[in-house]
Structures are given as C-alpha cells and as structure tokens.
Amino acid sequence: MATLTKAINKNLFDSILPPFGSPRVHLPVWDEGQKMFICNEYESESGHRYYLGIRFCDRIVIVEKVGLYHNWTYIDSIELYAFNGQRMELIQKRDYEKEFRNEAFIRQESEQMVKDYLTGVMKTQRISIPAEQIAAQASDLVNGCYKSFLDRDFNTRLTQILPKLEQR
Predict the structure, then answer these.
(1) Cα(20)–Cα(94) distance, integer angstroms
(2) CB-CB contact of 56 with 44 (8 Å)
(3) How many CB atoms lie within 10 A of CB 108?
(4) Residues 54/37, Cβ–Cβ less than 8 Å
(5) What is the residue-wise DSSP string for 85-114?
(6) Looking at residue 107, what is its pLDDT?
C-alpha cells in the first residue's frame, strides 16, 4: 500500500514539475509575490514573453495582459470581469502602449475601472450614491483581489473560477 501511495504522489508531482524534457500539465500557477495566477504564458517569434495574470475575489476578476520585452515588463491591458451567476462578463477594459508594469499603477487603474463601472450602473438605474461610498466599495473589491490564495481563510470560489481560468 505504501508503494501505491508513493507512486500516486510521485506521479502527481511529476505532472506538475516534470523532469527536464517531459511535458508539463498546463495549470494556472499561483505567484505569491504578485498575488495572482499566471496562465497562458508564451513566447513570440521575436523572443518576447507574454502571460495573463489573473486575480479575483467573490465578485470580480482582474486580468492583466503582461509583456516582457528584453529587460522591461509592460502592461498591455487590464480587463475587469464580473460574475453573472454562470460565467464571467467583461465589464471594463483598458489598453496601454509602452506602459511599464507597476503594482501601484495596476491597483489605481483597477479601482478606477470599478468606480467607473459602479457609477455607470448607478446612473442607468437613477440611483444617487455619494462618490466617496463608491470609491470605498471599489477599493474594498480590488483589495479583496489581492488576498493571498495561500491564506487559510481564503474565501474560495475556486471550484467555479478554475474552469474559467483554464478556458482562457
């Protein structure tokens, strides 16, 4: 029995981190330093690397499209998604050209995108809410996306979100 358990564990870890030359299972990888999942990483013909960075909370998903050119890291775009109960819907998107990736910039832009979305929804529903309250809600939502996946109390909607990440 111990041999079977050892083989299962070895096969599991070999599929995640295989020996050199073996194919690797494509799973989103958690990057604790950036507090996001990294997926869809590829290299262009000119040698530049690209990847998607995905972070989420129980209400929104923030997707960063990142490019690594020579020694520089650029943000190509930020997309903001909301859950509609069954799938994610794009609610805001911003494209950038030659903008250096900076964590403070990403947070600021994400908060502004959430504020713009909430303000637009409130306007269409003819609801008046103070701008400070919208800003506080936007900040709370974005901060929730920066919670570590490795925390014990992580409120996981992972069973719903991981299949969506793997489809992207």
Answers:
(1) 38
(2) no
(3) 12
(4) yes
(5) SSSEEEEEEEEEEEEEP-HHHHHHHHHHHH
(6) 95
Tokens 């998604």 sit at which residue?
81
Q: Which two tokens stand for residue 98?
A: 């030659």
Pick from 168, 155, 143, 38: nearest CA to 90:
168
Say how many Å lie between the first and final Cα of the chain, rounded: 39
Q: State the DSSP string of 114-148.
A: HHHHHHHHHHHTT----HHHHHHHHHHHHHHHTS-
Average pLDDT (139-158) is 79
12/5 Cα distance (integer angstroms): 11
Instruction: Output the six-digit token pair for 93.
Output: 């998107």
Give the pairing of strands 60-69 and 29-31.
unpaired
User: Is pLDDT above 60 for 39?
Assistant: yes
The residue whose two tokens read 């003819």 is: 126
Say what the pTM is. Answer: 0.79
